[in-house]
Design brief:
homodimer; 216 residues; mainly alpha; Arc Repressor Mutant, subunit A; Tetracycline Repressor, domain 2; 69% helix; elongated; HTH-type_Tx_Regulator (chains A, B); DNA-binding (chains A, B); TetR family transcriptional regulator (chains A, B); Homeodomain-like_sf (chains A, B)
């Protein structure tokens, strides 16, 4: 994509986000976005086949931002709790401008028939990138070897839970979500270190085997 | 409510559910429901102020069904894993007829601004009843005393996770959800019994304290 195209694409996206904010997601149409951005409807559709595509692009961009910020914040530490905290805060930071339409995104993106649901095919690449952030979280830490293969996806699932909590969070600046991240990260790190105990390990192995059985 | 009223209310609800199934949730209107049920629009609105109210009634009924079936299934056992399994299966049993519009319910009920979101005020009574099912689950079991006050709500939250998994479950008769319940229940029971270990207990106590701090 050349520079001009990138600019137009970004203009359409930013216009759409502004309109989602001011008019609400459901009332915003592709036609309205094109008119507001001053591009033809055909041009808007060229970059985004639907409003769903715009949501997906937003998701992709937020993952990119989260990844860059998390990497930077993790550079100087090997402690799992600190690294996990950094990745989770970076994710919420990237989403914060969109908190007021978190509910609309749940309606549009969470239903299983949605083209952009976070567990679906269309969002596969963004999901892989998001899971890769949590693979980086455990790099260089003391996480037990038998956990390493499945842990990034499990941590990402936990992050999805944090995002759901954040959508419902009505406290000022979503402070409760920050409390959740700060409180849960060291607990998860400790829990993972317990998985080495001979009495706990079989339980964790059973849980991992269950997760494999649950794959579609 | 007299018998005739109860019948009319139920007729409106059953008609609505049939239409949600055949036409989809969003395309079904209160006017259409009234016409199909052969009652006046005023009468339909008398029982249900909105489609949201119909969703809430469905939620209430499913909790009632779950509770009755769970109580019956738990009557002869004091094992936590078996009791938890019974309560979770009973919940999914009650929801099974509505699987094909699980996605529509997510759109309508899950957003935080929805009047009937499962964490909101309007659904408070139904939520209490649902949590009471999990209070019954731990009755007579060996769950450590320090966990008893908060555990029913935590188990209910876990059940909400199972419901979300079920909504996404495209396997035949949602078998993966059944596998999840059968696999996770004994793991949760074992995990809870570990919370007695001197090394684990402080961690669990910290998690409970965090949960208290996260209350709105």
């Amino acid at each position: 994509m050349d520079n001009k195209s990138m600019q137009t694409k970004d203009l359409v996206l930013q216009t759409a986000l502004g309109m989602f904010r001011s008019k609400g997601f459901t009332k915003t149409t592709m036609r309205g976005i094109a008119a507001e951005a001053g591009v033809s409807l055909g041009s808007a559709y060229y970059y985004f086949a639907s409003k769903d595509e715009l949501v997906l692009e937003l998701y992709r961009e937020s993952v990119g931002e989260q990844r860059a910020a998390a990497s930077a914040a993790m550079a100087d530490t090997t402690g799992l709790a600190v690294r996990l905290k950094a990745a989770l805060h970076a994710g919420v930071d990237a989403l914060t401008p969109y908190h007021h339409f978190g509910g609309a995104f749940i309606s549009s993106a969470l239903p299983p028939q949605s083209a952009v649901n976070p567990f679906g095919e269309a969002s596969g690449k963004a999901r892989e990138d998001a899971i890769a952030i949590f693979a980086e979280v455990i790099e260089g830490t003391k996480v037990p070897v038998f956990l390493r293969a499945q842990l990034p996806e499990l941590l990402w699932l936990g992050y999805m839970g944090v995002v759901l909590f954040w959508v419902y969070d009505r406290s000022e600046d979503q402070r409760r979500t920050r409390t959740l991240i700060d409180g849960a990260s060291p607990l998860i790190a400790k829990l993972l270190s317990f998985s080495r105990l001979p009495v706990v390990r079989p339980l964790v192995e059973e849980a991992l085997a269950l997760k494999v059985r649950l794959r579609p």
